[in-house]
Design goal:
Distance between the termini of chain B: 26 Å
Strand content of chain B: under 5%
Number of domains of chain A: 1
Radius of gyration of chain A: 24 Å
Largest sheet of chain A: 2 strands, antiparallel
Shape of chain A: globular
Order of helices and strands of chain A: HHEEHHHHHHHHHHHHHEEH
Shape of chain B: globular
Largest interface: A-B, 88 and 94 residues
Oligomer: heterodimer
Strand order of the largest sheet of chain A: 1-2
Number of domains of chain B: 2
Number of strands of chain B: 0
CATH topology of chain A: MetI-like fold
């Protein structure tokens, strides 16, 4: 009896509510989705175990696989634009904001962060209006700086739509790398910078040779966060281009492809089990990214710091 | 110090030019939407960059939008879902973070790792199964379904932030309370929770934005007329009014303004939270 009363019930009480909701609505669905991907759904609604057949179909069936490889490839391009444009701009802004004695740094960073807070749907429509040939804001602006002939309906053309959407997303989310990099830059001890400055090093040199090597871990973190965000992005494509990710699927990425395989669109019927298969592939891609981050990047950084 | 100030090692003017240019790029689209929402259709097209004046000022867009869509309902739904989710993310998250940081029990590390999966793996990938669970529980088209999913989505980050904070609370505080025979629940609710307020503020601001802005789960779990959130409502509403520029601009403005207002009040917490890693 005495030992029973000593059972730490309070620990259970603290753990259980959150644990149950998280397990039921996050952890279990993830696991169950992988499990579902091993089944095929008959038209009667009955599910039959089919091993890896769904994966085989996804990767090689002419109808399904074409869309999948297209979405995967587009998603890589989408990610690449973020790595090459968003993160360098974020780094530049953070480097400038963290300069010692710069007036107005707080105001700048507060204002630059605003787009990041707005819903992707709002951002998507906003840019659609601004880039619209009907409204004329962009064509007139280009004309005023002598580049009037440059204007094209970027969002509507097959070869420019994806890049344009990626740049819109970059514009919206540049605040995240900016803030994270800024935080790690201001954490660098003043003595290090002061010592270099006394030795006559220029701000440029201090940045490249002292600050940048010290924030490599943050750059790694920013890259993996970008990767995760990009490989389950959906809202922007859906808001601007709808389920069909047009023109001619040129803006289709894994998130929108997942939505279509799951719910169907136009002539094609949706399938929960095929949707689960796509989701599992997305899971594996993200997991791979996270593992590369932890095992390669982290370990190398560790060795570097030693 | 005086010496350093007299001779900045960087070109101050160039730095300000770059930052001002980028600030302009970041704000211009938002500015254009807000300004044109208050203009007549003619003025929107003739002088999109001008501020509204006595001749061009018009609220026709808002009148149309407010008469055709029940914005109050949309806002109400978003507000309810966000606030209730936040409350439980904070309460359950703090309880779990406290258990993980304070008590030694078997499986503690495992539980910590299990809860951390959600930081890296997006909950969206479980959607197929989440929808089946929601159907089985008869919760389709309810705000409860959204709330449950958002709690599950928000907990991992909340636990991560709160755990870090709570493990820094001095031991003496808890031990003194334990000597006075105060129950563990009282320690948590009347000592730990109030102490964790700064971390709770960070969690709140962080969790709020993705919930308010989410399109995916409202679209899939609660697309019904009476349970739609603002983000989904805007998406569907603008789809119908593509050619009515006044209405489109007005609905975008209605969606932007609450977030901007909130940001005016909470930008400090948000930025402090984002830059908190610096203390490490």
């Amino acid at each position: 009896m005495a030992s029973r009363s000593r059972f730490p019930w309070h620990i259970l009480v603290f753990i259980l509510p959150g644990f149950i909701i998280y397990t039921l609505f996050s952890a279990w669905p993830l696991l169950d989705t992988m499990f579902l991907s091993l089944f095929k759904q008959a038209s009667s609604g009955e599910r039959v175990f089919s091993g890896l057949a769904n994966y085989q179909e996804l990767l090689s069936d002419p109808h399904l696989s074409e869309g999948f490889w297209n979405a995967l490839w587009n998603n890589f391009k989408f990610f690449l634009v973020h790595v090459l444009v968003q993160n360098p701009i974020g780094l530049l802004l953070a480097a400038l904001l963290s300069l010692k004695g710069l007036h107005g740094a707080k105001t700048y960073r507060t204002l630059i962060f605003i787009p990041t807070l707005l819903s992707v749907v709002v951002i998507g429509f906003t840019w659609q209006l601004i880039l619209s040939p009907l409204w004329g804001i962009t064509p007139n602006f280009l004309k005023s700086i002598g580049l009037g002939t440059w204007f094209q309906p970027w969002l509507g053309q097959e070869h420019t739509a994806l890049l344009t959407l990626a740049l819109i997303s970059v514009w919206q989310f540049v605040g995240v790398p900016m803030m994270l990099i800024y935080a790690s830059l201001i954490a660098i001890p003043d003595e290090l910078i002061d010592a270099a400055r006394v030795d006559g090093a220029s701000a440029m040199r201090i940045f490249w040779q002292i600050k940048l090597p010290l924030i490599v871990p943050t750059l790694g973190l920013v890259t993996i966060l970008t990767f995760i965000g990009n490989f389950n992005a959906f809202d922007l494509i859906y808001a601007v281009k709808g389920v069909l990710a047009g023109p001619n699927f040129s803006t289709d990425i894994l998130g929108s492809y997942f939505y279509r395989t799951f719910f169907g669109a136009q002539s094609s019927l949706g399938s929960p089990t095929m949707g689960a298969t796509v989701a599992t592939v997305m899971f594996l891609i993200i997991l791979m990214g996270v593992m590369i981050y932890f095992y390669v990047v982290q370990r190398r950084i560790h060795r570097y710091q030693l | 110090m005086i010496l350093a100030k007299a001779k900045q090692p960087f070109n101050v003017i160039a730095v300000h030019i770059v930052l001002l240019t980028y600030t302009f790029i970041a704000l211009f689209p938002v500015f254009i939407i807000l300004v044109n929402a208050f203009k007549s259709r003619k003025a929107i097209f003739n002088s999109p960059l001008a501020l509204p004046n006595a001749d061009t000022f018009s609220t026709i867009g808002f009148e149309k939008v407010l008469s055709k869509a029940d914005f109050l309902l949309l806002f109400g739904n978003s507000l309810l879902v966000t606030v209730v989710s936040l409350f439980f993310i904070i309460l359950f998250g703090a309880m779990l973070a406290w258990a993980l940081s304070e008590y030694k029990f078997t499986g503690r590390t495992l539980l910590g790792l299990f809860m951390a999966i959600g930081i890296m793996i997006p909950i969206r990938l479980g959607t197929v199964s989440i929808l089946e669970i929601v159907v089985a529980l008869n919760l389709v088209n309810t705000r409860t379904a959204l709330i449950l999913v958002y709690i599950a989505q928000g907990l991992p980050m909340a636990i991560f932030i709160l755990n870090e904070y709570m493990s820094q609370i001095p031991k003496e505080l808890k031990e003194a309370a334990r000597c006075d025979d105060v129950s563990e629940y009282q320690i948590f609710f009347s000592i730990i929770l109030p102490l964790a307020r700064p971390a709770i503020a960070t969690v709140a601001v962080f969790s709020m934005i993705p919930i308010w802005n989410d399109l995916w789960f409202p679209l899939i779990l609660a697309p019904g007329e009476s349970t739609r959130t603002v983000t989904l409502g805007i998406q569907q509403f603008i789809g119908q009014f593509v050619t009515d520029w006044n209405a489109v601009l007005a609905s975008l403005t209605l969606a932007v303004i609450p977030i901007l207002l909130l940001y005016v009040f909470f930008s400090k917490q948000l930025i402090r939270g984002l830059t908190a890693g610096a203390v490490k």
